[in-house]
Each structure stands twice: as C-alpha cells, then as structure tokens.
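Hi all, posting the design record for the shared folder.

TITLE: backbone redesign
STEP: 1 of 1
STRUCTURE INPUT:
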C-alpha cells in the first residue's frame, strides 16, 4: 500500500507528467468513493451517501446547479462504476499519449478540462431547452470523464486522422474511424437511458474538433485554462529564499570571467519561440505525413511551442 502512495506522489512530483496525473486523480477519487459507499451502505447510511454524491455530480436542474456550480468541474473527475472508469481511463491513456506527444502536456490538460466543461454546458443546455429531455431534468444527475475523454479522442483524430491503432479482433484501424464510431454511438444514445452522458459526449466531441481547428489557425482556446492553473500554481509554489548580495568596495567591478555567463563555444541553445505560422505548417505536415516525417529542427520547434 505504501508503494502505491509513493507512485502517486511521484507522478505529481515530476514535471511534464499531466497524463498520469489526470489518470491518478480519477483513480484516487474513484477508490475513495467506492470505499466510502461500501462503509456507508453496510452501516445503513446508503441514502446519505447518495445525497453526498449530488455535491460531486452535475444536476440538470438549474435550481440545484446554481447552488452547486463547482459540480461543473467535479463531475468529470467522478466515477462510481468499475467498467465506467476503466473504459474512460484506457481511452484517455491511448489518445492522451498522442496529444501529449504531438502537442505537449498543457494542450492535453486544456482539452481535458475544456472537454468536460463543454460536455457539462451542453448537458445543461439540452436538458433545459429540449421538451423530450426537460421532463427528465428534475431527477437527472451526471458524472464521469466521458466528455473530456471524447474531446481528446476527436482532437487526436482531427490532428492525426490517418494514425492507426491495432484493435483486438479488428486489426489496424485509423483513429478517425474510431472517433466517428464513438460520435455516432453518442448520437444514437442521446434518447436512451444514458441520454445525459451521450449528450455530454457530443459537447466534448465538438470542443475537441474546434480546439484543433483553432490551434491550426493560430488561436489556442486553452489559454484561459492555463492562466487559471498558473494562478493556483503560484499560490502553492514555494517561494525561493532571499538572496543576499555582497559587494566588496575594493572590487567595484566583476571580473571578466564571472561577468560572462554565455554558453561555452560550440554549445547550441534554442531560446527562440517558433511563430504560429511555423507551428501551423508543422501541424499540417503531421496531418499529411505523420510525426516521423518531421525533421529534427521541426520536432524541436513543436516541443518548444508545447511548453508555452
């Protein structure tokens, strides 16, 4: 058990590890809720647990949602069924690896959060405007990362439509077809028993498609997300200790060797940030010919852009 906690702590202590961090958060929340549900059910407090879950899952009832606005975020980190979280985390890992490799950790986090928000807003909008769904609005709650995950799936398929996965029993299949099947299944299930979840899928899918198209046109829809995250990182970041400078009056000027902080001859540094036009050309090349077709310089430019 100690090693499990050590692994989780390690995943958050390392940089450029957003994919594993997202998966770890979902699994930890799932484990805590399952244990809590078991304990409360055995003790005869199952009804209380169900009530507590309404503070984590999003309600289609605007009268309830307006008093619990945080559920627009907490719902896409919340699962209670084993198959639900396994399916979501596997897809998050497979498609998230592609987004992370080609666009970087920040873009992956942007897609996860924006996909979840889009799914939640789409869920609220449809359940309060479409008559067929309005009759279900009072008793409808939704949870799960499906909206976020399908946003990442569709984003990957939009960026790399001809990239192939080897699926069991099916063999190599281009991811654009996998994403298309998921969207069609969500459309067909929008009037079924899990209408809310499937509607959230569609909101996430639309966001994933628009995110990549806007990124290719030079606009990153995720900048507000990163601004908010950077703000909270700043609140919890350790402040560096104060540095005390000592100036010797007999040596008012630094020696040439200490003043020169440039790199040694022959070393190469990459400080320039590639322009949006350069990144768009690289993304177009990936879409046409795959990541392997990029030159070393183009890969470095893409990596530097992903760190912005």
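Okay, here is what came back for every position:
SEQUENCE:
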């Amino acid at each position: 058990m100690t090693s499990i906690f050590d692994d989780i702590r390690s995943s958050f202590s390392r940089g450029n590890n957003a994919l594993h961090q997202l998966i770890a958060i979902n699994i930890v929340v799932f484990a805590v809720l399952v244990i809590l549900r078991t304990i409360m059910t055995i003790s005869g407090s199952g009804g209380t647990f169900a009530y507590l879950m309404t503070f984590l899952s999003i309600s289609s009832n605007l009268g309830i949602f307006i008093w619990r606005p945080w559920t627009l975020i907490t719902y896409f980190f919340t699962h209670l069924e084993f198959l639900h979280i396994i399916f979501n985390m596997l897809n998050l890992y497979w498609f998230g690896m592609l987004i992370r490799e080609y666009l970087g950790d920040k873009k992956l986090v942007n897609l996860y959060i924006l996909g979840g928000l889009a799914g939640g807003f789409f869920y609220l909008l449809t359940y309060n405007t479409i008559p067929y769904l309005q009759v279900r609005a009072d008793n409808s709650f939704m949870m799960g990362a499906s909206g976020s995950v399908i946003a990442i799936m569709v984003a990957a398929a939009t960026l790399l439509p001809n990239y192939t996965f080897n699926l069991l029993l099916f063999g190599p299949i281009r991811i654009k077809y996998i994403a298309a099947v998921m969207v069609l299944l969500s459309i067909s299930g929008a009037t079924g028993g899990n209408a809310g979840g499937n509607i959230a899928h569609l909101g996430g899918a639309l966001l994933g498609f628009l995110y990549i198209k806007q990124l290719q046109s030079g606009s990153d829809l995720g900048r507000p997300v990163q601004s908010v995250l950077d703000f909270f990182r700043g609140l919890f970041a350790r402040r560096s200790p104060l540095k005390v400078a000592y100036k010797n009056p007999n040596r008012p000027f630094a020696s040439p060797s200490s003043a020169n902080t440039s790199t040694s001859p022959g070393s190469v540094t990459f400080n320039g940030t590639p322009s949006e036009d350069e990144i768009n050309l690289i993304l177009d090349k990936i879409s046409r010919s795959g990541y392997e077709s990029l030159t070393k310089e183009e890969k470095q430019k893409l990596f530097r852009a992903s760190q912005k």
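COMMENT: The first strand starts at residue 58 and ends at 59.
Let me know if anyone wants the other runs.
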